[in-house]
Amino acid sequence: MLKSPHADICLVLEGTYPYVRGGVSSWVHQILEEFQEFTFTIFFIGGDRKATEVMRYEVPKNVLGVHEFFLFEEGDQGQLKTGKKLPTALKSEFHQLLRELRDCATIDECACFFLKFARWMDEKNDPFDLEWLLSDPMVWKAMVEKYDDFCPYGSFIDYFWTFRFILIPLWKILKARHLIPVAGVYHSACTGYAGVLAALSAKRYSRPYILTEHGIYTKERIIEIIDAPWIYESPKRYFNIHSQSRFLKEMWIDFFKILGAVSYQGANEIISLSEGSHIAQQSFGAPKEKLKIIPNGINLEKFEAARIQRQKRRFENRGEGPVVSFIGRIVSIKDIKTLIRAAYLVNQKISDVTFQLFGPTEEEPEYFHQCVELAKMTGLENVIHFRGMTPIAEALSQSDIMVMTSISEGLPLVILEAFACEVPVVATDVGASRELILGNSPENKELGSAGFLTGISSPIETAQALINLLRSRSLQERMGDSGRKRVEAYYQEKLIMDQYRHLYRGCLESQIKEINPKEMKEQS
Amino acid sequence: MAGIGFRLRKIMKAGTFSAVTRAYLYAALISSGPLVMAIICLSALAAILSLLGGLEKFKVIYATTTYIYAFSLIITSPFQLILSRFFADCDFEKNRRKSLRFFTTSLACVGCAALFLASWFFFSLPEGISLIYRMSAIFFFVTLCWVWLMTALVTALKHYNQVLFAFASGYLTTLLLSFLFVTLYGKDWSLAGFAIGHAVLFLLLLRIFFCEVDSRGDSSSQGEKYSYRKIFWKYIDLGLSGLFYSIGIWSDKIVFWFLSPDRELVGQTFWVMPLYDQAVFYGFLSIIPGMAIFLLRTETEFAQHYEEYFRSLIGRKTLTEIIKIKSRLIDSMNREIFVLVKIQGVFSLILCLLAPSLTTVLGLGALQTGIFQVVILGSLLLMLLLVFLTVLFYLDKRRDAMVCCLILFLVNSSVSWGTLYMGEAWYGLGFVLATFSAATYAAIKVNVHLQNMEYDTFVKQPLV
After folding, report:
1. Pick from A65, A136, A289, B230: CA 20 to 30 A from residue B148's CA?
2. By the 8 A CB rule, do B29 and A248 touch?
3. Does residue A52 contact residue A19 with C-beta atoms inside 8 Å?
4. Identical fold at A1-74+166-297+492-524 and A300-491?
5. Which residue of A has its CA nearest to B1?
């Protein structure tokens, strides 16, 4: 990989660009291509090395380097060795910090403490190693005290391992601040580990930190954790003296909330794509004055050909049945199973409909397999087609209606793209779907609705909406038209990118005046 | 929403609840079993030789045997503990066959070293000693070394009956053949009987071992590669514990053999000090009831509680429950030690009181009676030391165990050397002080480690 000199903007990305496809990655790619006047470095945080075998995007030339960093490397499985020990002179300071941590009662206080601790580590030049931290009796004592306060009736060995599994990646992120390149602005595309690292680096080099959240990371992790089978829950009984069976899940949830809070506290600008995420961010502790909404935008010209082709196809109408399509990765968060169940219900009423599922299937092979099985079981082999990776314009030109049953979304670009081709959309009411389909401001709403909203994991609602649309061609035309108008008015790429350009300029100009002497040292 | 975040699932997959290693080590048995056996043999030999026409006549044979026993125990001691520990590890992995290569390599190493040392020693003896004597001494030394290695392994298997049978057959052969050879060919042939008898014993033990390994064999992973040297160095503290322990036990005798003004030169070769040696050997035998109780009761009791403790960790218990089970372990240990001290103490006391009449029967003098009594006290302390050492090995505190054995060695050799100047009345003090200080040190360490037990078990876990 290229190692970069000083870049204007350092993008801190977690599990996305350039190795994983998806909405955030497309957005990043858009930004990189748009801002030819700035230089970028990319700091990619991944789970393990396997994720980075294939680059899914061609990285533009203004990217000076792509750095990779892995939270879980194979070499970790070793025995503890004695690492760098905390010098005795610093022991009392460290123990004072531990006491402060013990007194942290809220998520925000914990986040505050973490930033303070990172600053202390900076000042003292990382006085100890992970090995020391994990084997220091005082740390052990503090850990046991937390256990006694928090879950004295829970399985201790699970508590211990959860504690370690939380601590170790966090420690790595803390150490990663030595690896991340110096840049004019730090910009992360989510909270989580990436957000924490961006916040720490920005603080360390006194640079601004911009956080753009597409989905709400904390919320997504909570959803994932709540039904994670790998986190132990003690068996439930009717009569119980305590209700701590889910304490491990609570630990994980609190942990991700703290990561979120660290990002929010460290960020100078917090950007969300939609009204809905804006409110969610506040509920997770983002200060209102930092919040801002910049939606996604698309380049309408790219879809012009597809739009005309689609119109032509619909006009000619060669007697093929209507096509309902899904465009996106076949993964659990998209809840494809609900889509398949809805397809079953639709198929009972309208027999000539076909469902085309466009999108990569390799990310969660097991989930994909289950979906295929489900389609077979419901007798829909000839109705549901998994088409794999397809260019979006091509997919849209073949679609009459687009459907989406995601559990969580940010501002799905694919809805805007559907609108660009005048495809009406049936989508779950998550993320920005509501404002895209119905409009947010009064004058926006006047453009009319561009489809239907449905409840999460409700095949019946999705099916009903699809049936309504399928039965009325004129409704399809009207809704498609509303969508097109909405995109033209509010979601054009140029308008959106100008807002970011303005933001970047502002951040970069504010510090051209003062070049930090500390940074010069770091550079050499 | 794109693939922000990776799958947490992957992290937990490593689920390491089984990463609890157990350090089975029948330390007491391994470090003292052979010693006790050696001393029983030597004492029996002394008794039989006196019956055959007085110890005087067979002085050289007795001295040779004593040397062979002492030095074979010392040179095999580092291997005994390492070998049985590695075997326990393989057993824990349910792959006993894996230990075979390590076992054969150990046999070869020890065999070569023993052969070299014995040949060098016995061929440098002055003229006048017959070739057959030299050859059978060498053969005896090598087989005895192998017997000690086997004993270490086989005792870990806890097949006491079979081991007992092997020893009985081996020694019966020894006795009969020696007697036969001496009457047929003369004194020089006696050691040949010893050598053949021990070879029989070795083969019987080998058979027990191989039956056991095969019965639970898993041939699939037999070819697993590992480096002998790496394992040896990994457990070097165990090896050193064994070495220090056995030198520690013998050092008072060795100091007396080589530095005492009253020593005797036997057969122009062997320095001995019968005055001290016999009293010490007889006194040392008083440890037998204590050892028996320890093996049949204390050790089992401790092992049970120790396992229960680990089960409670893996069994998702709360910390309060874990600590409760730990305190049960400590309580039971206190109780067992008390029982042990009570029984062994009473036994030792009776022996001490009966000492004057006992020593007359055994043919020892008044001065030796004193030494005999002191050594009985020392054996009581040694018993305690063994209990604590075993606990240290269970807790895998190999470094502390090593220091403890080092203390035993240093105190025993230095104080015994001092008593030579202080006069005959003080003989035996070295052994008592050494066992006392080593046992005290071990007790303190055991106390600390038991207090920090849950911290130790968890903090020592591999990273992920």
Report:
1. B230
2. no
3. yes
4. yes
5. A409
Residue with tokens 């008592």: B432
Q: Inter-chain contact B2–A168, Cβ cutoff 8 Å?
A: no
Contact A427, A437 (CB under 8 A): yes
Q: Does A253 touch chain B (CB under 8 A)?
A: no
Task: Tell me the shortest Cα–Cα distance from A284 to chain B, in angstroms.
Answer: 18
* Distance (Å, whole) CA A391 – CA A400: 16
Tell me the angle at which helices B27-53 and B236-259 cross, rounded to the nearest 10 degrees: 30
B13 and chain A: CB distance < 8 Å anywhere?
A: yes
Q: Is B261 on the interface with A (CB under 8 A)?
A: no
Cross-chain residue pair A406–B6, CB shorter than 8 Å: no
pTM beyond 0.80 = no
pLDDT attached to residue A1: 37
Strand partners, A187: A11, A210
List the single residue in A22, A78, A152 with the smallest CB-CB distance to B3: A22
Residue of A nearest to B4 (CA): A15
| Topology at the third CATH level for domain A1-74+166-297+492-524 | Rossmann fold (3.40.50)
The three-point CA angle A481-A483-A484 to 5° equals 65
Q: What's the half-sphere exposure (Cβ side, CA atoms, 13 Å) at A388?
A: 1
- Confidence class of residue B14 from pLDDT cuts 50, 70 and 90? very low
CB B269 within 8 A of CB B61: no
In Å, the largest CA–CA distance within chain B is: 99
Contacts of B453 in chain A (CB under 8 A): none
User: What is the crossing angle of helices B398-422 and B366-394, to 10°?
Assistant: 170
Of B7, B313, B464, the CB nearest to A77: B464
Contact B319 A148 (CB under 8 A): yes
DSSP 8-state code for residue A298 = B
ipTM above 0.85, yes or no: no
Interface touch B4/A15, C-beta < 8 Å: yes
Q: Which two tokens stand for residue B398?
A: 């190999």
Nearest-neighbour CA in chain B from A321: distance (Å): 30
Interface of A with B in 157-216 (CB under 8 A): 157-158, 160-161, 164-165, 168-169, 189-190, 192, 214-215
* Among chain A residues, CA nearest to B459: A135
Domain boundaries, chain A: 1-74+166-297+492-524, 300-491
- The C-alpha angle with vertex B64 and arms to B376 and B266, in degrees rounded to 5, equals 95
Yes or no: say if B108 and B165 are a contact pair by the CB < 8 Å rule. Answer: no
How far the first Cα of chain B sits from its last, in Å, is 30
DSSP state of A84: P
Which token pair is A436?
Answer: 């895209």
Contacts of B453 (CB under 8 A, 6+ apart): B309, B326, B395
What does the pLDDT look like over B305-359, one tens digit per residue?
888 888 888 778 889 999 999 999 999 989 988 988 999 999 999 999 998 888 8
CA distance A262 to chain B (A): 17
A87 by Cβ neighbours in 10 Å (0-12 / 13-18 / 19+) ranks as: exposed
Tell me the average confidence (pLDDT) per consecutive run of 10 residues in chain A, 524 residues long.
67 89 86 92 86 84 90 61 79 91 90 94 88 89 90 86 87 91 92 94 92 89 82 67 73 93 94 87 92 89 93 84 93 93 94 93 91 93 92 93 90 91 94 90 91 94 95 93 93 90 88 51 46
pLDDT of residue B308: 85
Query: Which residue stretches of A104-136 are H helix?
Result: 107-123, 130-135
Q: Which CATH class is domain A300-491?
A: alpha beta
Write down the number of H helices and E strands in chain A. 21, 13
Of A71, A76, A157, which has the smallest distance from its Cβ to B314's Cβ? A157
